[in-house]
Amino acid sequence: MKTFKQKIAVITGAGTGMGRELARQLAAEGCHLAICDVLDDNLAETKRLCDDTAAAGTLVTMHVCDVSDESQVLSYCEAVKQQHHTDHINLLFNNAGIGGGDSFLLSERKEWERTFAVDWFGVYYCSRAFMPLLLASSDGHIVNTSSVNGFWACLGPNVSHTAYSTAKFAVKGFSESLLVDLRLNAPHVKVSLVMPGHVGTNIGPNTMKIHGSPIPADLDREQLVPYRRWLENQGHAAENISDAELRAMIQQYMDDFMNNAPLTAVQAATIILDGVRANRWRILVGNDAHALDRAIRDDPEAAYDLPFLERLPDFGLSG
Ligand SMILES: NC(=O)c1ccc[n+]([C@@H]2O[C@H](COP(=O)([O-])OP(=O)(O)OC[C@H]3O[C@@H](n4cnc5c(N)ncnc54)[C@H](O)[C@@H]3O)[C@@H](O)[C@H]2O)c1
Fold first, then answer.
1. Where are the domains of the chain?
2. Other Cβ atoms closer than 10 A to 256
3. What's the predicted TM-score (pTM) here?
4. Are 93 and 12 contacting, i.e. CB atoms less than 8 angstroms apart?
5. How far apart are CA 230 and CA 158, in angstroms?
6. Within the chain, where are the H helices?
7. For all residues of the chain together, what is the average pLDDT?
8. Quick one: pLDDT at residue 187?
9. pLDDT tens digit string along 29-58?
10. Distance of alpha carbon 257 from alpha carbon 209, whole angstroms
11. Is the pLDDT of residue 319 over 60?
12. Which of 68, 168, 219, 260 fits 117 for a cystine, CB–CB 3.0-4.6 Å?
C-alpha cells in the first residue's frame, strides 16, 4: 500500500500512545479512520486532535469498545460499516494493549487473564470480525502490535513478565502464520508484525486504570504488596521504605518510562507506517529492539541467563 489517502483504517487502542499517533498521522494523509478505545475521554481527545489536522473530507469516527469482549468488537464492526457506508476496510491496526499479570505464581488469576484477554483475544476477535472487510477491499493490510516480548519473554533479571509475554508471543505466531495463509488464500491482503522496544507512553497508568487499580497516590497497603515484592527482587530492603515513599517511587517509575524513553510515540508511529508502506512484514521499532533481536538470534540459549540480562543496558534497555 503506497498511499493511505482515501483508504479506511480501523485502529484499536487509539486513546493515547502509538495508537493516537498512528491515527493523527493517517488522518493528516487523508485516511478515513474508525478508532476505538476502552477509555472514552482519551478517545474523544484523539478524535479532536485528528479532526484538527485531518486532510479535507476525511471521516474520523470513534467507538468505545473493549477489544477483549467479542460482542463489543462485533458491534464496533457493524458501526464501522454503517458510519463509513462501506463493505470494506483497508487497514486494521491491532494496537490495544495493557501490562499486568506479571507472575504466573503470585499475580491474581483475574489480572493475569485480563491482560492475556486484551493482548491476545483483542487481536484475535478484531481479526475475526474485520477480516471479511479486509478481504472485500482491493488492497488490505493487517498490522498486529506485539513487542520485543513477542520474541523474548522477559523484562530483566528481577521481574516476572508472564501474561504479557505469553500474549505477545501468540500475536507474533498468529501474524507469522497468516503470511502464508494470506498469500495462498487472499494475496491482496498483507500482514505486518510490529515489535517495539521501549517507547515513551502512558501504558503504565492506563494499565492501572483498566485493571481497576487506583492511581499510585491512592494505593493502600494491600495493593502495594506486589510493588514491595518487586523492590525486594531488585535487592532493596523494602521494609525500610514507607508506603508513601513506595507510592512516589511507582509514580516516578511511570513518569520515567514516559519521559526518558529512547523513542516517542510519534516516532514509533512513523516507523510503523513507513514499514507498512514498504510492505515489510517484520517491523522492529527502535534501536533497542534491533539490538535485542540480533543478540538473541546470535545466542538464543543465553537469552535468559544472568550474564545476558546484565547486558541489557548495552541494548538500550533499562531492565
Ligand atoms: N510503550 C512501549 O514501550 C511498548 C513496547 C512494546 C509494545 N507495546 C505495545 O504497543 C501497543 C500500544 O501501547 P502504548 O505503549 O502506545 O500504550 P498506551 O497505553 O498509550 O496505548 C494502548 C491503548 O490501548 C487501550 N486499551 C487497553 N485495553 C483496551 C481494551 N480492552 N479495549 C480497547 N482499548 C484498550 C488503552 O486505553 C490505550 O489507549 C500495545 O499493544 C503495547 O503492548 C508498547
1. 8-201+263-285+299-314, 210-260
2. 13
3. 0.97
4. yes
5. 7
6. 17-28, 40-53, 70-83, 109-116, 122-135, 162-185, 203-210, 225-233, 243-259, 265-277, 287-298, 306-309
7. 96
8. 98
9. 999 999 999 999 999 999 999 999 999 999
10. 17
11. no
12. 68
Could you give the CA distance from residue 217 to residue 249 in angstroms, rounded to a whole number? 10
The total of other beta-carbon atoms located within 10 Å of residue 185's CB is 10
pLDDT tens-digit readout, 100-156: 999 999 999 999 999 999 999 999 999 999 999 999 999 999 999 999 999 999 999
Q: Is the CB of 90 under 6 A from ligand 1?
A: no
Quick one: which atom of ligand 1 is closest to the CA of 19? 16
Average of pLDDT values for 179-205? 98
Our answer on whether the CB atom of 210 is closer than 6 Å to any ligand 1 atom is yes
For residue 209, the ligand 1 atom closest to its alpha carbon is: 37
pLDDT at 318: 64
Atom of ligand 1 nearest to the CA of 149: 6
Q: What does CATH list as the number for 8-201+263-285+299-314?
A: 3.40.50.720
Distance from the CA of 244 to the center of ligand 1, in angstroms? 28
The C-alpha cell that represents 256 in the structure block: 520515567
